[in-house]
């Protein structure tokens, strides 16, 4: 985990602890209204908003005190919506995002307080947040539908919220500002998958097959060699291999899928060849790390599966950086116990 993510998670944990202290729970089902953007200029208005956040945090604490566990999907999601709302409010975000995220938190709190069943599991793109990283959304959906979800609820809930948070930042200040929250979401997805696999190893679910470990190896624009791989993306490979060893999993096979971005034109034949070369490079990389060549298969899909659209991004350097998640080789380690 990089320093930014450590600091962000620490700051949010500190926020939650601070807001828990001395807060009386409030049972009101009415929506909390923050001060209008143009009025957030006085100590009185800011104090009132902080009191509103404290009251909302107190309601979450009361639900936990009443027996709903921290790891519960809906309690965790209410907390994460509250956290991102306060985070952006504290950063002086003058858009509707802090209010809308707070409202999403309160919707869940109201439902839990009233005993609503079933509770909703949708994650709206509040403030018209950009839909980013379809691959991460899909991985979260897989975990959500797996037997191991019971052990990964908190990570899934917060991963979904962070993807919306990232999409909001993308709309406001483009890729440079959304990237840190994408990184947080990536780590939460990896954590969710690991928690789900470990849950499947418990005696009550010993018959459940563990899900695959997923990694993405990213390449520089129009490049396909080992030296053209973004170094930090190799960490996802090493982390997956370390998880296989630490969880005593048996590697059955490795599936590689090569991809390219759209910069050369959608459907461009050269992108097919480029994505194949990238897949071959990663295959050789895995063999060099001791994986049996017979277990590694690959395919390639050119620019047909873009996970990051980056419409309207300029200049060219910013666009290339935004499109980086498309220049990837997806690695799926199929495992068994």
TrEMBL record:
<keyword id="KW-0472">Membrane</keyword>
<dbReference type="InterPro" id="IPR036737">
    <property type="entry name" value="OmpA-like_sf"/>
</dbReference>
<keyword id="KW-0732">Signal</keyword>
<protein>
    <submittedName>
        <fullName>OmpA family protein</fullName>
    </submittedName>
</protein>
<feature type="domain" description="OmpA-like">
    <location>
        <begin position="206"/>
        <end position="337"/>
    </location>
</feature>
<feature type="signal peptide">
    <location>
        <begin position="1"/>
        <end position="29"/>
    </location>
</feature>
<dbReference type="InterPro" id="IPR006665">
    <property type="entry name" value="OmpA-like"/>
</dbReference>
<dbReference type="Pfam" id="PF00691">
    <property type="entry name" value="OmpA"/>
</dbReference>
